[in-house]
Amino acid sequence: xxxxxxxxxxxxxxxxxxxxxxxxxxxxxxxxxxxxxxxxxxxxxxxxxxxxxxxxxx
Length: 58
What we know:
The chain is mainly alpha-helical.
């Protein structure tokens, strides 16, 4: 998907790369929190929902 985006117009190339980097960082944060809360609360199956609930209730 990203390779197809990076083959686009030269004007938008830098913007597409920036968006791809942001997507990578968001994916890393999502996986990190998912792993952390699955580790701390192994009984929770929807760990990301639990994280959002924890942040909103805090």
